[in-house]
Amino acid sequence: MSDKIPVTVLTGYLGAGKTTLLNRILTEQHGKRYAVIVNEFGEIGIDNELVVGADEEVFEMNNGCICCTVRGDLIRIIEGLMRRKGQFDAIIVETTGLADPAPVAQTFFVDADVAERARLDAVVTVADAKWLSERLKDAPEAKNQIAFADVILLNKVDLVDEAALADVEGRIRAINPSATIHRTQNCAIPIADVLDRKAFDLDRIMEVEPEFLEPGHHHHHDDEIDSFSFRAGEVNPDKFMPWISELTQTEGPNILRCKGIVAFPKEPKRFVFQGVHMILDGDLQRDWKPDEKRESRVVFIGRDLNERAIRDGFMACAA
Amino acid sequence: MSGTLTSIADQVRPLAAGAEVVGIAWLGEAPCFALADGTILRAPEGGETRAPAHPAGAILTAVSDAKRLVTAGDDGRVVETLPDGTSRVLAETGGAWVDALALHPDGAIGYAAGRRVTARDAKGRTRTFEAPSSARGLSFAPKGYRLAIAHYGGATLWFPNLEPKPDLLDWKGSHLDVVWSPDGRFVVTSMQENSLHGWRLQPDRGHMRMSGYTAKPRSLSWSFGGAWLATSGADAAIVWPFGSKEGPMGKAPRECGVRHARVTRVGFHPHVNVLAVGYEDGCVLLVRFDDGAELLARRPDEDKNPVTALAWDKAGGRLAFGCQDGAAGILTIA
């Protein structure tokens, strides 16, 4: 995993400030070199030979998996970028404001050659503090981008008051309880808070507000996106693995994202997984710390999900 | 590999190419290595020279017809290198990556940058075609001035200098590399879905599905008579019989050089049925096709660097190979 190039997917609805963030990343002195795959070629005012234009070609995989789409141009470009291996530390993929993040994210799990060389580090979504609430009503793309995010930059916070900010954060939490939210102005944020997170933001799952974990305690309810998080103690891998695999196979089209940190009995390491639709990727990562509570937490974000069935299924995996 | 495998690895002249070998061409007596760092390394016996064919770029793809080596890069340039070592820029896209190339026997070239495909005939006249999605592979028909273009949803056959509408050979999925059989009867593509797809152009436009690979079969090589198509993408070279009019349908392919490592490159000898097979761990075997006898040309290396290019010289007496980490070598067959 260590020598795989980390990839950050940058999403955000039109005008939220994606390009501002990208320009910051490319101009600030941080000692890192990034290859950037952009779509609106020319918007970036930076002359950098490692800025590459892409076409956002979404391909269906002819593999019997109905929701399995990938970005064909991304596979081609990453193959080409690998010819310059050693000349950059990380890859940033910018998507258009109207793009669905799923095919981009799935590309890093579905294509074996890409998965061998690169790992999806995080989906970072830039959101406009003033307009996000409106966009969540009329733009399904904006909602998907929030649902998919590991990190959300709530940008342009200078344009709204504290009450409005709290409201929009509540709406974000209703869609995505586990993303890390940063309030920013002009996307001013330390680059390390956004890039090469190494699943750090997954730890947020452990901090999801306890009341959120209890059924029926949603602060905000989103009409379209269901998101819920469950907590258990240790779970039995012989029950959990078939359950999560079966669930993502049958409910995959409705699951936008799922992720979790899981404790298996007698296993010193944390099992960490994440999924996009029907695709699931997980492995044993760092050790549980001595002062860490050995708990299992999972988060599901999707449409038309049966919360009770998923909760019961998860709880039945208890060790 | 069996324990009794005969090694001819001591007949290899090792070479430090220094960067990933993207392609190899034999120009006269000189093996020329197109390297990812943009340089062309000429390595005739007794002397090596390096030329910066793409000074600011990485070479993405390379093709050769023994008269010249043509390279294309992420600098948007298409560059021709001749046997005397001189080179010239044939085309420049203004920065758009050129990552597909084809050469025509009469001197024409085809190249693609994203969806835009350009055919440049021997007189230098250019025509362009917008593919429905990024053009991934190009191949000229053995006869006539006709270019096959692989893309998402199939392959398009295009006569650059004629009016008729380009002809779409459709098949669901993403098509990567494309080759034309030496007799012009078959067009075969490699696919994202770890398979090959073929179209029988005569007499019936029949489809041919060749699957079962564990990886994308990105290296395709015809035997000297065109009766066999060798492919990478499995733990053996998979060789399909194309000797009959029907093509390989209903027939089992041959498996050559079975090992516990994936084949990354294949190259048929120009005059006899011997196949050079390069693996993901750096191993190179020569397999005599008729009886499966194997010779070891290069041992697997410790760092497990894949073989990325193979090329026989015109007479078939020497085989040049190169790897991802820049290791390379020239085997002389005694």
Report helical residue fraction of chain B. Answer: under 10%
From the helix content, strand content and strand pairing of chain B, which structural class follows?
A: mainly beta
Radius of gyration of chain A: 19 Å
Task: Tell me the number of strands of chain A.
Answer: 14
Counting copies of identical and different chains, the oligomeric state is heterodimer
Q: Can you count the helices of chain B?
A: 0
How many β-strand runs of chain B? 31
Instruction: Report the average pLDDT across residues of chain B.
Output: 94
Task: Output the strand order for the largest sheet of chain A.
Answer: 3-2-6-1-7-8-9
Overall average residue pLDDT of chain A: 87
Give an account of the 3D structure.
The complex is a heterodimer of chains A (319) and B (334). By secondary structure, chain A is α/β, with parallel strands linked by helices. In chain A, 31% of the residues lie in helices and 28% in strands. Chain A has helices at residues 18-27, 72-81, 101-110, 112-117, 132-138, 140-148, 162-175, 204-207, 210-213, 237-251, 307-315; strands at residues 5-12, 34-38, 51-53, 58-60, 69-71, 90-94, 118-128, 151-155, 180-183, 225-232, 255-262, 269-276, 279-287, 296-303. In chain A, the strands form three sheets. Chain A has a seven-stranded parallel sheet, with helices on both faces. In chain A, β12 (269-276) and β13 (279-287) form a beta hairpin. Chain B has strands at 6-7, 12-16, 21-27, 30-35, 40-42, 49-51, 59-64, 69-73, 77-81, 87-92, 100-103, 109-113, 116-120, 126-130, 137-140, 147-158, 167-180, 186-191, 195-200, 207-210, 220-222, 228-231, 237-241, 254-256, 263-268, 274-279, 284-288, 294-298, 307-312, 318-323, 327-332. The mean pLDDT of chain B is 94. Chain B is mainly β and 334 residues long. Helix content of chain B is 0%, strand content 50%. Chain B has a six-stranded antiparallel sheet, with no helix packed on it. The two termini of chain B are 22 Å apart. The chains are: A alpha/beta (319), B mainly beta (334). Chain A binds chain B through residues 49, 52-53, 55, 57, 59-63, 70, 72-73, 75-77, 80, 83-85, 111-113, and chain B through 20, 22, 36, 56-60, 74, 96-97, 99, 114-115, 133-134, 136, 152, 172-174, 191-193, 215-216.
